[in-house]
Specification:
Pfam families: Peptidase_M55 (PF04951). The chain is of the alpha/beta class. The chain has helices spanning 30-50, 134-144, 156-166, 188-204, 227-233, 254-269, and strands spanning 4-9, 55-60, 77-80, 97-105, 122-127, 130-131, 149-155, 170-179, 182-185, 218-224, 240-243, 246-251. The longest helix has 21 residues, at 30-50. 52% of the residues are buried. Bound molecules: zinc ion.
Length: 276
């Protein structure tokens, strides 16, 4: 019997996406790109099923996390939709999965890729002192469960950045970024094949790829946009404020480090939109 595949799907790296208007609910073009996001995910599902997988879990990992159209999703997959998920973009991953794949991912904050960032509300995110991406942090969470990440889709920078840290990784480049807000895009009928092929190869190598591990203790350091956000994040014990805008958390294992990081980031972000 085939194994289980976990898919975390973001939106900035989806086929054709170049603008913030493409990925924000209610904005021009958002509805179009929900279809294309669902198609990119379906292409990966088709690839892994063809390679012998028997079960796929998809986690909608962008914004309000209700982007993927369930009625258009491949029926062999189940979908985690919605927010308030402790593992956020990696909710639902556990040791029962043979591998994890990232669809529609983007490059890190400061990167040259389309809509580059690293977890909204933070800038300059460092993992063990080195600039990191959502892909690397999420690969670390999967790695803590013993699950290797074997495939990613996005623009050329999203793919090359993650290859650099993970090493053995299948990449599906669906567009070539010119700037953070422009790209040379490949037609959906072709990216469908590119993603499917990469996912097929990614599933075939699941058993030979090592789960990603970060050196313990794991330290995550990041900068908020405003000092009041960092000050509020530092209300939490175990959160060190390094300077007016920068905080740091540290833990012996990846899941605890993630939980501290995420709690601090959410608490800091709660300042946004308040006026007093
Ligand atoms: Zn996103």
């Amino acid at each position: 019997m085939g194994g289980k595949v976990y898919i975390s799907a973001d939106m900035e790296g989806v086929t054709g996406v170049v603008s913030i208007d493409d990925v924000l609910a209610g904005h021009l073009n958002y509805e179009r790109f929900r279809h294309l996001m669902t198609q990119d995910v379906n292409s990966a599902i088709e690839g892994v099923l063809e390679a012998g997988a028997s079960e796929v879990l998809v986690n909608d990992s962008h914004g309000g996390m209700t982007n993927i159209l369930l009625e258009e999703l491949h029926p062999s997959a189940t979908l985690i939709s919605g927010v308030n998920k402790p593992l956020y973009m990696m909710e639902g991953v556990d040791k029962s999965f043979e591998c994890a794949m990232f669809i529609g991912y983007h490059s890190m904050v400061g990167g040259r890729g389309v809509l580059s960032h690293t977890f909204s509300g933070a800038s300059c995110v460092l993992l063990n002192g080195r600039p990191t991406s959502e892909g690397e942090v999420n690969a670390m969470i999967a790695g803590a469960m013993g699950v290797p990440v074997t495939m990613v889709s996005g623009d050329q920078h999203a793919v090359s950045e993650l290859k650099e840290v993970l090493g053995d990784l299948e990449g599906a480049v669906v567009k070539y970024a010119i700037d953070r807000s422009s790209a040379r895009c490949i037609h959906p009928s072709l990216t469908k094949q590119i993603i499917k092929e990469a996912a097929r190869r990614g599933y075939m190598k699941a058993r030979s790829v090592k789960p990603y591990t970060a050196r313990s203790p794991i330290t995550l350091e990041f900068e908020f946009l405003q000092p009041s956000m960092a000050a509020r994040a530092a209300y939490l014990p175990f959160v060190d404020q390094l300077d007016p805008r920068t905080v740091r958390v540290s833990a012996p294992d990846p899941i605890s480090a993630w939980r501290l990081f995420w709690s601090a980031l959410l608490l800091g972000r709660s300042v946004e939109g308040e006026s007093y």
